[in-house]
């Protein structure tokens, strides 16, 4: 599993570098992709940094036109962050790159092994869900379906 994770992370890091982004910036884009919108303090909490550091990073992502600030409909003093078209495109490119990597990987795996992997990923996804209660059941189901799609590519 260490080899798998190392290779997977290496490819993700390379994609980030090729896109001109840092890992925290990519993490923020994916967080917005999966959660629709959030505030700067949510980004800081996600990354484990101060609100000031999160705000500086968000400013750069706004300058790159990858995210935008919008007024919070509940509290007009607060700003919500959301992906722009360009930001969604980068996330989608990353997802497609991951799918291509999984497709290459699965050429060496038999159909029976693929079924076993899907079963194992379902168990792991459920366990991860239990460890992180903020993930809702819909997200859990989406992750399960994504894992099945990635393997059957």
UniProtKB/TrEMBL annotation:
Keyword entries, A-Z: DNA-binding, Transcription, Transcription regulation
Pfam families annotated for this entry? MarR
Q: Which InterPro entries match?
A: HTH_MarR-typ, MarR/SlyA-like, Tscrpt_reg_MarR-type_CS, WH-like_DNA-bd_sf, WH_DNA-bd_sf
GO molecular function terms here? DNA binding; DNA-binding transcription factor activity
BP GO terms, sorted: response to stress
What are the HTH marR-type domain coordinates in residue numbering? Answer: 1-126
PANTHER family on file:
MARR-FAMILY TRANSCRIPTIONAL REGULATOR (PTHR33164:SF57), TRANSCRIPTIONAL REGULATOR, MARR FAMILY (PTHR33164)
Protein known as: HTH marR-type domain-containing protein
């Amino acid at each position: 599993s260490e080899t798998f994770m190392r290779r997977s992370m290496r490819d993700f890091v390379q994609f980030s570098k090729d896109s001109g982004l840092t890992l925290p910036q990519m993490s923020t884009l994916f967080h917005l992709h999966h959660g629709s919108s959030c505030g700067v303090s949510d980004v800081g909490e996600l990354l484990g940094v101060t609100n000031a550091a999160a705000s500086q990073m968000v400013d750069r992502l706004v300058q790159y036109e990858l995210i935008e600030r919008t007024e919070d409909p509940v509290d007009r003093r607060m700003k919500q962050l959301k992906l722009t078209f360009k930001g969604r495109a980068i996330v989608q490119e990353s997802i497609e790159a991951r799918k291509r990597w999984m497709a290459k990987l699965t050429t060496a795996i038999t159909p029976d092994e693929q079924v076993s992997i899907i079963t194992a990923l379902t168990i792991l996804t459920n366990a991860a869900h239990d460890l992180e209660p903020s993930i809702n059941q819909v997200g859990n189901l989406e992750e399960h379906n994504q894992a099945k799609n990635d393997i059957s590519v």
